[in-house]
Amino acid sequence: MGQGTYRLPTEAEWEHAARAGTTTIWSFGDSPDIFGNYDWCSQNSNNTTHLVAQKLANSWGLYDMHGNVWEWTSDWYESYTNAAATDPTGATSGSYRVFRGGAWLNGCSAPVRPANRSSGTPGLRDWGVGFRLVKVVPVPTAAFTVSSTSGDTSTTFQFDASGSSDLQDAASDLQVRWDWEGDGTWDTGFSATKTASHQFTTPGTYTVKMQVKDSAGLTTIVSHSVAVTVALPTTTNSLGMTFKLIPAGTFNMGCSGPAASGEVCQSNEQPVHQVTISQPFHMQTTEVTQGQWKAVMGGANPSSFKSCGDTCPVDMVSWTDIQTFLTTLNGMSQGIYRLPTEAEWEYAARAGTTTAWSFGDNSNISENYAWYATNSNLMTHPVDQKLPNPWGLYDMHGHIWQWVSDWYSATYYTTASVTNPVGPTSSSSRVIRGGGYAAPPGGMRSAYRTGTPPDYRDSNQSFRLVKVP
């Protein structure tokens, strides 16, 4: 009808509007003595509805939020939890829809409180139930992509907000501005130019915010975390295996609590314990590729995803197969190599961060850093196609599970050594880390761990190496 777009309010929106900033039992206070000034209920309605807006409005100018008729909301009815929520929309399914506010046939105290809730089947028609609408405000949609170039002393990120859009303005008419470190200070003014770049010189994880504004002045903010890499010494052998020299250091190993995105710790990731890696070590920047495996193993390729090519990680290799690979490689005058310990792996994956992922606590930007269930098409891809962690290591989150040297124990952290731990002395499984192409975001956190029998082969299992100094 050319009148705009409308919908029912959510239950949370309804109560927020009914309270109008108050915390009292009713929007007009805690005393029911003046209810007759604000609502139609059983004591003053003469058992019928009345013209709207005949009683006093609440402090936000909304009429009949107490009484007159119950008002449908969009939510399916469910019991509350005590968890905080942002823009809740209720259950995903149910038998009853929520209505709010009380009606002319109800009592004039408890039934017409802003907190009182009731429900009915979606097909219910009743002379005590009506509704009011929410007009959808067409705020712009904010989106930007991230790419980076690492130098010896800095990392430069390129940002592209051309994917932002708006229902009323052309994309070219939208304006954007940037906050490079998420500190609440806008580092640029609004501009119609959608691309920008920024150079970071200090390693770490930063939250970059972008705000888009349309011609009506309506704005939306979106953010991405970016990991700024440090220039670590790099070596590459004649097989094309590249290694970063990971510095010695101390870190907190394990999971300490829910990430901002709601991911939770697993019992085998606790307790968090301080671990010291006392010596630097050379960590391979990617998984061992199919091409590298073939070069060592005389052209044999066990991979399920052979069609992915030589730059894709080798797969279908067991922990036992890797020991044969290492024996052969270590006899080729290329140096001495081994699997990382579990502690070395997590230390390198975290790369100095304490967040759930090396790129922050927000799993929504996983696609910039990882191949996983959402974007992998359940297959491997060429290595180093996603952004690296701050120490220049690729695919430490997702893509393919990675064997480490340790035996697996779900309770090992309760007794683990605090300096250069090497795992239990025996078990039936070896540890695998990192998550794979089928993992959800929670399954590729830096702390996530599981185990599998050492002779087991799977298309979602590979490894990377440590070069012994």
How would you sum up this structure, described in words?
By secondary structure, the protein is mainly beta. The chain folds into three domains: about 1-135, paralog of FGE (formylglycine-generating enzyme) (Alpha-Beta Complex), CATH 3.90.1580; about 145-230, Immunoglobulin-like; about 235-469, paralog of FGE (formylglycine-generating enzyme), CATH 3.90.1580.10. About 10% of the residues lie in helices and about 25% in strands. The protein has four helices and 23 strands. It has helices spanning about 10-20, 290-295, 320-330, 340-350; strands spanning about 5, 70-75, 95-100, 115-120, 130, 135, 145-150, 155-160, 175-180, 195-200, 205-215, 220-230, 235, 240-245, 250-255, 275, 280-285, 335-340, 400-405, 430-435, 450, 460-465, 465-469. The chain has a five-stranded antiparallel sheet with strand order 13-14-17-23-18, with no helix packed on it. Strands 4-3-2-5 form a four-stranded mixed sheet, covered by helices on one side. Strands 21-20-19-22 form a four-stranded mixed sheet, covered by helices on one side. It is elongated, with a radius of gyration of 29 Å.
Describe this structure in a few short sentences.
This protein is 8% helix and 23% strand. By secondary structure, the protein is mostly beta strands.
Helices and strands, in order, run as EHEEEEEEEEEEEEEEEEHHEHEEEEE
Largest sheet: 5 strands, antiparallel
CATH superfamily of the largest domain: paralog of FGE (formylglycine-generating enzyme)
Morphology call: elongated
Binned strand content: 15-25%
Rg, nearest Å: 29 Å
What is the third-level CATH name, the topology of the largest domain? paralog of FGE (formylglycine-generating enzyme)
Unreliable sequence segments: none
- In total, how many beta strands? 23
CATH C-level class of the largest domain: Alpha Beta
**Domains counted in the coordinates: how many?**
3
Name the average pLDDT: 93
Q: How many H/I helical runs? A: 4
Helix content: under 10%
* Helix/strand class: mainly beta
Spatial separation of the terminal alpha carbons: 74 Å
Biggest sheet: strand arrangement: 13-14-17-23-18
Could you say what the CATH architecture of the largest domain is? Answer: Alpha-Beta Complex
